[in-house]
């Protein structure tokens, strides 16, 4: 019998504060244009993503870790484990169990053969390693601050130096010589050859629990990168590969970046190498013909530029630039599949740019079949790069809708390379249970308007805010942009009608805050006139007071450093404050997004607009990726503000206001073990609450799109949940009482 044990440290997804509490909510349904339900709408979007397998919940099933180089953002997904099915559910509660500060590239590999995936990651050009020490929940500890290798194998005296990997590159970490420990392939520092760093753990210790590297080949495969094309020169003489591995005379400079990964495509136990180049739109497969018994004679004898089409009747990977590949089992059939995305942070696809291929053969002789160009993306709110949400009742039905501005969708067919627009998600649900459907991806026809009057061009990095600017009783729009300007759109529909936004004035009143204007219309000085609060690139906030009338406003700059607060931290170059003023118990506060992604809270505002505000620089420890922006509204009519956060990856995350949650110490929130059995189940699930609280407790079961399948107030320690009529798949059981809320996964056979 299989039990699922639920404890606080593993399954809590509540963010606590003594003043404001917000609970992450992935349950509110979002639909696409066609009315199809998005599986993981609030997962936050993808740009240039890297994929690794790891058992997040320690149930023996490999789940998914995704790292977005664009914004250094982590996403985690629980795998249902159902054979021959792709079924990943966004599970953000595991994100904070990973070390903070991961950046550039992150690959999860089991270096000590204990069955747990460890972390290899970039660290100022070097390689840092964290060991997975999980017992009852996911945990990591630093194994190596900087991974070293012996750079002088021909000498009797080792010379240990740091393994250097350019921050733009991705190395290959795999058992290259099939001896049971992990080796290392990297692009050489001068950038035109592949270097092989052999792990000597097996040879020296007889086991794989060490990271003891020595350079064994400065010209692995005897190839040299071909300048200007994503191909290699075969049978390179590699004259500097003997006796003096540090000699670099007569070679080319680094070519700008490469991504590497290895696999066996011909079932001969040698590792082939797949390379993506920073200036190229394909993956290059290099065939290794090493015939030695100990795999010490790597030799690349052939290359194929249309990978993975070579080994299947499928289409090759080919889009934009700098592709990277990842080899893992995504459909639970025991065979590794292929995922590829871009490794570039700009001038590349930022939507429909995660290609996946299912492998219909074996892991060591793959037969790849194209599946989709938007793996997991197709189940998210995804607006390209940058997402800047705002709430407004656009159709005057009393329910709040969401408008999302973006930096832009990449389009290499136009001179600007990006198309910026507004995405409108209409609430087609109810006042208490919102359901958002995408109804327009170019709301108000923004992408076709020339708003940048200085350059006679379109605007980018669009940030909307809404309010009655002209005093006629309906909601107008003010739009900030990258150039630091504001643009005024008048709603000509009138009160009670669906909005009809018409451009009234581009570069409104000549307002220019420098770069990245993020405006909010708010009566800041409480004189019954809408003022303007505007965030900007330098991290300060500008305050423009309306010194005109409600029908004919005149905005006058009062200060370009409101409250003397700034979202720029020491050592950073961009602040990109994105303020949202809201009210708590009759007093204003400000939540502000930032370029570094942290959410700032500013207080001491009332009666102090010319003074200095108080600062909480990491409000509730919220961090949803770089370039964060904030929108707040009571979207479920419970008299508590809810929060939507945008980010650089082009997605959204949602947090629901919850007054039932109060600040407590971790040790006070621990609960006794909750047992769910059998799990997986066929007809009936037993829920044993043990010594946990019964009074005021509710048990609910949700499906993966947020539909309540079961709900019952608890009156006894053990209750039975009838799941016989549930379709097969994954569900979530929620245990909640007056103080706590917990979530557990259920599998229905």
Briefly summarize what is shown:
The protein has 749 residues and is mostly beta strands. It starts with a strand and ends with a strand.
List its traits.
56 strands; five-stranded antiparallel beta sheet; six-stranded mixed beta sheet; 2% helix; disordered N terminus; 749 residues; mainly beta
Oligomer: single chain
Q: Biggest sheet, strands in spatial order? A: 14-13-18-17-16-15
Shape from CA axes? globular
Percent of sequence in beta strands? 35-45%
Number of helices: 3
Return the structural class: mainly beta
**How helical, in percent, are the residues?**
under 10%
Measured distance between first and last alpha carbons? 14 Å
Uncertain runs are 1-19, 242-255, 660-671
What is the overall pLDDT average?
88
- SS elements, strand count: 56
Structure characterization notes:
It is a single chain. With 749 residues, the chain is mainly beta. The chain has three helices and 56 strands. The strands form 14 sheets. The protein has a six-stranded mixed beta sheet. Strand 15 and strand 16 (183-187) form a beta hairpin. The radius of gyration is 28 Å and the shape is globular. The two termini are 14 Å apart. Mean pLDDT is 88; it is low at 1-19, 242-255 and 660-671.
